[in-house]
From TrEMBL:
GO MF entries: metal ion binding; metallopeptidase activity
PANTHER family on file: NARDILYSIN, ZINC PROTEASE PQQL-LIKE
Domain Peptidase M16 C-terminal positions: 212-393, 710-872
Family: Belongs to the peptidase M16 family.
Name assigned to this protein: Insulinase family protein
Signal sequence region: 1-22
One Pfam family this sequence matches: Peptidase_M16_C
GO biological process terms, semicolon-separated: proteolysis
InterPro entries per the UniProt record, alphabetical: Metalloenz_LuxS/M16, Pept_M16_N, Peptidase_M16, Peptidase_M16_C
Organism, scientific name: Flavobacterium microcysteis
Limits of the Peptidase M16 N-terminal domain: 56-176
Amino acid sequence: MTNKLFKIILSAGFYGAVFFMATETVTAQNLSEKLTTDPKTTTGVLKNGMKYYIRPNSKPEKKVELRLLVNTGSLMEDDDQQGLAHFTEHMLFNGTKNFPKNKLVDNLQSMGVQFGADLNAETGFDTTVYMLPIPTDNPKNLETAFQILQDWAQGALMTDKDIDEERKVVLEEARANLGAISRLRKKFLPPLLNSKYSDRLPIGKEELLKTFKPDVLRRFYKDWYRPDLMAVVVVGDVTAAQGEALVKKYFSSLVNPSNPRERVAYGSAGYTKQEVMFLTDPEQTTTRLSLNFSPRKTEADKTVGDYRNTLVEQLAFSAINRRYRDLAAEGVPPFAAAQTGNSSYIRNYQALSLTVVPVADLTTALNAAVKELLSIEEYGFTKDELELVKKNLLSYAEKQYNERNTTNSAAYLGDYEENFFIGQAAPGIEKEVELYKTLLPGITPEEVTAAFKKLFSKEDKQKFFAYVMSSETKDALINNDATLLAAIQKSFTQKAEKKAEVAISTTLLDKMPAKGKITKVEKDAKLEATTYTLSNGVKVTVKPTTFKSDEILFTGVKKGGTNAYGAADKATVSMLTTVIETMGYGKFTPTDLSKSLAGRNISVDQSMGETTNEIGGRSDIKNLEGLLQLNYLELTEPRLDQNLFNGYVSKMQMQLKFIKSNPQAAFVDTLVNVMYNNNPLRPMVIPTEAQIKSISPERAVEIYKNEFGKADGYHFFLVGNVDENTLKPLLEQYLASLPTSGKEPKFVDNGLRLKSGNNKFMFNKGTEPKSLVVMQYFGELPYTEDMALKADMMGDILTIRVIEKLREEMGSIYSGGFSGSMEKEPYSQYVIQTQLPTGPESVDAILKQTEAEVAKLKKDGPEAKDLEKVKIAIIEKRREDIKTNQYWIGKLQQLQFSGNSVDRFLNFEKEINKITVQDMKAAANKFFDGKNSFIGVLNPEK
C-alpha cells in the first residue's frame, strides 16, 4: 500500500534539499520493526467496538476537525438498496433526534460553519465519511458538535416525509453526473472492476431511488451504522483528556444489533484474458486510452520492511512518470500526457495501469508509452533518474518535518482514515522522515527495476483489460475493438531503447546580475511589516511570521495586463505565460529546469490579468536565495524555442478539437460571446483554430519582456519565516538588479463592457435531461471597500436562501450558490452571479423563485438570522486565515499596492458588525436596480 507521505509528495511535486545517510546496516537490522501509531495520537476502543483517534493540535487556534468514519458503503447494499448508502448520508443532514429537519445545518451556520464548504460527507464503495470542522471560541460548540456526531451515528429520524422530499435532491445529484463520461463508464466499469464493485456504484439506480420504500432505507441504517464499524477522529485545539472524555460521553451508549450482519470483504478475481473496448460518444471531448493489468492482493504497511517495499515500488512509478512528462514536453511530443500508477479501484487490491492521451494518433501515443515500460524492463532504471526522485522525496519530507509544530489539523485526518479503513500504519512525520533518511539511500536501481518487473511481467501482458474513450472512429488506425487489441499486442513487441543520460546544470545563473542597493526603509508598526525601496525603483514589503516553520511566500505585482493589447494580440496575451513556460528560460528547457531544481523546494510562476501582471512563488528557508535567483532568471531570460512552441500548439489543437462537443463548454463559450456582443476583445473561453495559429512565439517573447522583464512599477511581497538580515543582500542582488525602461506602467480600460439591459439567452445542446441556469446582475457604482464587502455578503446571503428554497424546499438543485464582488479597476463595477445545475422541468421555477428572493431582499432586506450567519462565517474564516502566510501575502498587496484602508482592515470585525439589515436592503436596491442583468439557460436538444 502507498505510504501517506509519499502520496502527498507525488501529488504536490515539491522540491527541496537532500541529506543522505549511510545507514544500510541500521536498515537491515530494523526491517522487522513494527510501525506504531504516532505517539502524539491517543487511540482507543470503546466497549461497543467503536474506535477513536485524538490528536491535540493548535493550528489553527480555536478549531477542531471532527470526522465520523463508517466502515460501510454501497457494497453493503442489498439488491433493493442500490444507492441507499449514499441516500443515508443525505438523510443525516435532514433530521436527527436532536436536530429535526434542517435544524442541524441551521445550527452550524450560526457557528460560522458553511454547508458544503465546511460541513460535508462522502460515500464510496467501502466507506462513508462525515466531516465537521467546528470553531471552539464558544465552549458550547464542541458539545454541540459531538451531539451531532452521535446523532449521525444512531440518531437519524428518517421520517417518510423527509425521505420523500430528499429524493429530488439525490436525483439532482445523480443528474449532475450525467453525460458522455457516465454513459461510457457504464460500459467499461463492469469488465474493469470485474467484481461486486461494478454492481454497486454509490450513486445507485435512478428508478430505485424514486420508488424505494422508506423501511428499506431504515434497514440499511440499522444494519450498518453501528459502533463496531465506526471510528471518531478528533484533531485540533483540544486536550487529549477533553477529547477522550467527550468521545466516551457521547459514544459509549451506542449499541450494536443483537444479530449483526457480517461485513463481507469483496475482492477481485483478476483478468483471465486480453479484453478491450473501443468506446465512442459524440459528446466525448478527448481520446484517452487506459491499459489495466490484473489486480494483486496487497497488505497494509505494518513493519519497516513493508514500508521499504512500498517505497521501492513507488520510486519506480515516480521515475516512469518523470520520463513521460519529459516526452510530453518535447517539440514533437508522442502524447499530450501519459501516466502509470498502482491503481486501487478495489480495497486491498492494486494493479499496474497506464493512461495515455494522444496528440495526433493513438498508435504513436500507445507505442511511445509502452516503449518506456519495455525499456525499463530490459535496461532498468538509471542511477541518475532515481537520484532525482530521491532528492525530491527527501527535501519534501524534511520540509514536513520542519513544519511539524505548525501543521494544520486537517493534514492529519487522512492518516487516521487509512489506518481505520485499511489498517495502514500512521507512524507520524518524525518516524516517516527517519525512515526516509535511513531507507532511501540504500535502495538501488536494480531493486527498483526488479519491483517494476514484478508488475509488468510476461504473464501480465497476457491478461489485461484496456479501453479507449473517444469522440471519433474514422481517420485513425485504431478505431474499433479489433484494431485496439492488435495495436496493444504489437506495442509489446517493440524493440526497447536504453535511456540516455544527459548532464544538467544545477547553476541557475551563469553570471550574477549587477548588484543594486536599498535606498529607503519604511517600518509599518500596525502591519508589522517593512517596505524597502530599491535603487531601480522596485518596492519590496516583508512581513516575518512563524505561522509555518519552513515556509516563505513571494509575490510581485505591477500595473499592465491584457487590456493594454488589442484584438490582434488577444490569443498571445491570453496564453502568454503558458507559451513562455513551454519554451523555457535561459539555457533551460522546461525539462532541464525541472531536473536542475530537483532537491530544491522552490517554484515561481507568472500570470497576466486584465490590468495587472503578477508573480507567485514559494520556498523553504534554506532555498530563499534560489527562489530569488529563479525569479530573476524567469523574468529576464524568456527562451525562444520554435520547436517546443510547435509541440505546445499541436497539443492545444488536439485538446481543443472536440471540446465543444461538451454541452456545457459550448454553452459557456457561446454565452460569453453573446454577453459581450461578440466584441473582439471579449474573454477567450475556448480558443479557435485560427486563434491558436495566430500566436507568434516571437511576439510572445517580446510582450513578456515588456510586461514582466522590466522592473518599472513592481511591488514585491515576502511573507513567512524570513530573516531580514539574510534577506537584504539578496534583495540588492536579485531584485534591485532587475532592468528598467523608464516607462511607468498604468491601468488600462480598453472599453470592454457587458451587454447592457436585461437580456436572456437560451442554448440547446446535449442529449441528457440536464440544464444549467446562469444569472448575472451587474453595473457600475463608485467603488468603496464598504460596498465591496456588501457585494460579497449579498452573495453569501443569497446562497443561504438558495440552499433553503431551491434545494431543501423545492428539491430543484443539488448544489449551487451565489457570489458577489466589486472591482475598482479597470472601472468601478460590481457583479452578483450564480450557476445552478438543474433539470429542464425546473428552470422556470428556479428563475421565478430566484427573482422572488431578489425582490424580497430589495423590499425587506435579508432576514436578521441570515445576516448574522454570514457575518459569523466571514469573521470565523478571517480569524483562521489571519494566522496564515497565504492570507497576509494577499492582504498586503490589497493594502499597499491597491490602496485599501489599513485602519479598516485592523478594525474589520467592528466594520462588518456595524452592517444592518437596512444597510443590506439599501445595497440590494443598488445592486439589483433592474437596469442590467443577463440570464443564460442551457437546455438539452429538443
